[in-house]
Amino acid sequence: MFRRVAIIGLGLIGGSFAAALRRQGLAGTVVAGSRSARTLEQGLALGLIDEGSQDLALAVRGADLVFVSTPVSVMETVLEKLAPGLSDRALVTDGGSVKTAVIDQARRALGAHFARFVPGHPIAGKEKSGVEAADADLYRRHRVILTPVADTDPDAARRVRALWTAIGAEVLSMAPEHHDQVLAETSHLPHLLAFSLVDTLARQGDSTEIFRYAAGGFRDFTRIAGSDPVMWHDIFRENRGAVLDALGLFRDGIDRFQRAIEDNDSEALMGIMTRANSARAHFLAMNARTSYTRARHSDDETGMTQHSDPTFVVAPGGRLQGRLRVPGDKSMSHRSIMLASLAEGSTEIGGFLEGEDALATLQAFRDMGVVIEGPHNGRVLVHGVGLHGLKAPGKPLYMGNSGTSMRLLTGLLAGQAFDTELTGDASLSKRPMERVARPLREMGAVIETGEGGRPPVRIRGGAALKGIHYDLPMASAQVKSAVLLAGLYAEGDTSVTEPAPTRDHTERMLNGFGYPVRRDGATATLSGGGALRGGQLDVPADISSAAFFLVGASIAEGGEVTLPHVGVNPTRTGVIDILKRMGADIRLENQRDAGGEPVADLVVKSAPLKGIVIPEELVPLAIDELPAVFIAAACAEGETVLRGAEELRVKESDRIQVMADGLATLGVEHEVYEDGIRIVGGPYGGGEVESHGDHRIAMSFAMAALRASAPITIHHCANVATSFPGFAELARAAGLALEVQAPREDR
Ligand SMILES: O=C(O)C1=C[C@@H](OP(=O)(O)O)[C@@H](O)[C@H](O)C1
Ligand SMILES: C=C(OP(=O)(O)O)C(=O)O
Predict the structure, then answer these.
(1) Catalytic: which of 367, 425, 624, 694?
(2) How far is the CA of 393 from the centre of ligand 2 (A)?
(3) Is residue 285 part of a domain?
(4) Are residues 457 and 369 in the same domain?
(5) What pLDDT was estimated at residue 595?
(6) pLDDT tens, 129-149?
(7) Where is the Prephenate/arogenate dehydrogenase domain (predicted)?
(8) Residue 513 lies in a domain
(9) Which of 174, 208, 232 finishes a domain?
């Protein structure tokens, strides 16, 4: 990419840059400029550089790229020294941890050449310093922030970006002031605290005593106090304003902590720590724009991006057997957090789904000031704040992959006194939100959606809502629920009529919390201005997750599976009705009521299936299970026809097309309609299937392998954790020959 690269300052950052260039073959000649002859000798001996010079103007002569990686305090002097040697076309970039100060220095030192200067900051490092610590992998999968300004040549910025990308880094751009503030909070402040804690303890009388007993917590917290004092000295001085602001913020936080301890305020203490716990997991996930649960288990703090979006490879055959407890119901888990938060008093929830979608809802309420303990093994304790007790979150609420979170919250937030903004991942950002915004506006809400009616959703607080009657244009429980939740805050009655029955968990659970919802045929009605009462709540296993095993055990030779304690609310059991019509052997045992929701143990045995025309009224009752039903259809004798299922096109992926593409790969005959599909059953093969990050697509094709003649490889399966954490392990324990592999991109 570059003929001759000059690296000025050959420490850990510069040396690692040289090593990476070398390894990727990105530079013809690498030359270093350094004050220290010894460093240059080391660089040559380590094979990192081809030439070295102590004269900086000489070092940069003829270079088409100059990377300055000296401490920020000497940056201006260094730039002044090298400037006379720069050729007109040379690009200059840097690795300084502070950007506004460096930009001012560069502007002064480089004069007309400043346009070719691209300020940068690779977020990577170690406690070790010096060229001998150089590491060709230091920047791989780490973030590099570029902070070009108005007079930076866009072509120069583009080339520097391309170089970092080629080195394997993830490149972001932001304004320099923003960079300095963000880094002050996320890097400079923690370093300052680590240095300060160790220094404070070391000053005490017998510090050897303290350090002898210092345990893991001390070691973890103070690891970065081993970093280079000179470098940090410079950073604290050069980023003075932002560091002081961050320190002020921290001082407020530590005061709050102190008061909570002084006042014996358990709730405040638990609030601080549970919020911190989950916020950490949430931020790591957001940054990686990927899996919440994986980020929760990652120990990485250094800006490392997570690419573990795994591939499932499922060998053909296998059988499914055993007693399998699938995780808690996702729809009910969302609602349990929402209603418990709005209730007076505490609510203890059991069986809560610790999947990413439900955790996104939980996090949103923490962000709005609700103290929530857990989840631990499905138990969550929510300290309700009452209908009017939520607080402004102070930042957009991130809903991840979850349509239910975003749509239900839009309704609920329409009635709050404060403004909010809801954002989501790439998939959620493509899904329609006007379907909820429209009826809510009729109620008086002030809501803006993004381009094409998609996220982000911005909700203005303080609107006076009035009850309406709404005829749902589509059979959607999310839209129904959004309107009913807004109705809690509306004057008078709010009622919704649905064109076909949809899941009624919102209505049932509101009644369970002592908030009456009346039902008259297809219409549900509530009156605003009441109150919810906290209590106990049991979330049964999710029939939508059980569905994969209902299909799997039906199609696998010798399959026999018991799924205990599954929710069998009649608005959710369409999948059982459809499979039974196809000839499946499914029995409901132990039917009972659990807190207002019917549950049963499902017993399913392998059976020959036949194709059917799926009755349209069953579609909304099996909406999320239809991808699994497609696999049953591919294994059935004859053809199965689905119509009236256009809603499948606006789920986490276009589930009609994405399933059709996968079926085509396997060699399953089918015909796609705008609102459905016709599938002809018969033997099929294997191949590589793309899930498009849609959990239900991934799990459906995993089950398909039970009857395939060759392995099925399914790409991008991370989002399985949105609804079914532990799917791969459970399926394997039951007999599916599923292996989780690193993503294609990482191999
Ligand atoms: O209310 C709910 O919990 C859900 C309703 C359905 O969506 P629609 O309302 O868009 O049909 C369903 O697909 C989703 O997984 C969960
Ligand atoms: C459609 C689904 O969920 P959501 O709309 O909440 O993203 C689903 O889980 O299949």
Answers:
(1) 624
(2) 24
(3) no
(4) yes
(5) 84
(6) 789 999 999 999 899 999 999
(7) 3-291
(8) yes
(9) 174
